[in-house]
Amino acid sequence: MTVLLVADLSGPLNQAGQFILSLSVIIVLHEMGHFLPAKWFKCRVEKFMLFFDAGFSLFKKKIGETVYGLGWIPLGGYVKISGMIDESMDKEALKLPPKPYEFRSKPAWQRLIIMSGGVIMNFLLAFVLFAVILQIWGDTYLPPQSTTYGLYADSLGRKIGLQTGDRIMSIDGKPVKNEEKVVLDIFTHSAKSIQVQRDGQMINLSIPDEFIGELSHNRLDGFAEVAFPNIVDTVKKTNIVSGELKRGDRVISLAGIPTPDYMTFVTTRVHYKKDTVDLGLIRGTDTVHIKSVLDSNGAVGFIPVPPDSLVRLTTVKYDFIASFPAGVRKSIEVMQDYIAQLKLLFTNKHVKSQDSLGSVLTMAKAYRTKWDWESTWRLTAFLSVILGFMNFLPIPALDGGHILFLLVEMITGRKPGDKFLEYAQVTGMVILVALMAYALGLDVFRAFFKH
């Protein structure tokens, strides 16, 4: 008999599918932001590509004067507008006299609108998506007062004096609204202190400068997370030596060590792999002790009650009218956080680029391993803001570089020469390709050599 072992790829495939869907929506609408004004101003658009088609395309069809296609490199897309110096580097066409339908023949204000359209469309997409999300699913957050069991203090948290059970009430004296966002807020604002509630008292914990670098090195992991009790939901298999494990049991100790929350239990059990241990349980009003053999991963053999049903999340839903200004505020908040993180690369000597940068692999891993529409659209809106901002940077080969040159032209009345624009485009493309290769290399290194 031949036994074929097939790895479960459903999780990574779901992540890839959601990521490609998000990227496709963002890219198509970004390029539509260039395509539509180009058509309005009677420019000829030769190509409209979703994903890059270096060497060949997966699909293409000519409709009118434009070839629409699907490339095979999911790192972006483009529209090729006649008479424009872009990534196509069509130098032969630029040697000929300008034609009325070419980009270079149009007034500077029209070219500025065409080049700004992609970024504007990215921000509009984010506004609309956040507005729809806030109408359908609402804005869900966890106030500090609702963290019944406080936080689980991981190694970095314990390093600055945080203890399991603490509630972070404020950061640098500013009240915390969402306990699930405290790590990001500490990082983006380079916090100097946090104020925690412990046993009914407020305690101030100082944060040293180098701590922000440690957070960055750990990619915001290893500080703290919401604590929740370890309650049995489903018993998967019987590893019990004596006694019985039942649904609803709360595990409060392992091998005599108190485990008041799930993460404490998880970090304790790894030291007792394949051992027979005593489990302390609360069953109803009674304390019960049973014995169980842990497997090679240190697991007992049950699925705990998920945290969402054990902590009191607050959800605020918006009506149709209120959702749109709220969507704008959400987009601005995302952009401010992102700019703050970029700023840290230049202002905090402890934050290193190799810890902060990531490629499409990092983006894809942010998606759920099970298809989740709410999460997918939230991440699509988030990425649309980020990519819109990145495209607006005044770097040659990006929209922001073209916009900068057009603004200089409109102010000075002098148009940059074609040779200058060609060199700027090539320089920008080299920089971008180098950055993408560097980020991809970092992700590959983390996947294979960093655990």
From TrEMBL:
Q: Which UniProt keywords apply?
A: Hydrolase, Membrane, Metal-binding, Metalloprotease, Protease, Transmembrane, Transmembrane helix, Zinc
Report the locations given in the UniProt record.
Answer: Membrane
Query: InterPro entries given for it?
Result: PDZ_sf, Pept_M50_Zn, Peptidase_M50
- Cofactor requirement: Zn(2+)
Which EC number applies?
Answer: 3.4.24.-
- Please give the Gene Ontology molecular function terms for this protein: metal ion binding; metalloendopeptidase activity
Q: Which residues form the Peptidase M50 domain?
A: 19-435
Q: Which GO terms describe its biological process?
A: proteolysis
Q: What Pfam families does this protein's entry cite?
A: Peptidase_M50
Q: Which GO terms describe its cellular component?
A: membrane
- What is the protein's major site of localization? membrane
Q: Provide the transmembrane region boundaries.
A: 20-41, 112-137, 382-408, 420-441
**What is the membrane topology here?**
Multi-pass membrane protein
Keyword Mitochondrion among UniProt keywords: no
The family classification in the record reads: Belongs to the peptidase M50B family.
| Cited PANTHER family | MEMBRANE METALLOPROTEASE ARASP2, CHLOROPLASTIC-RELATED, REGULATOR OF SIGMA-E PROTEASE RSEP
Identification of the protein by name: Zinc metalloprotease
Species the sequence originates in:
Dinghuibacter silviterrae
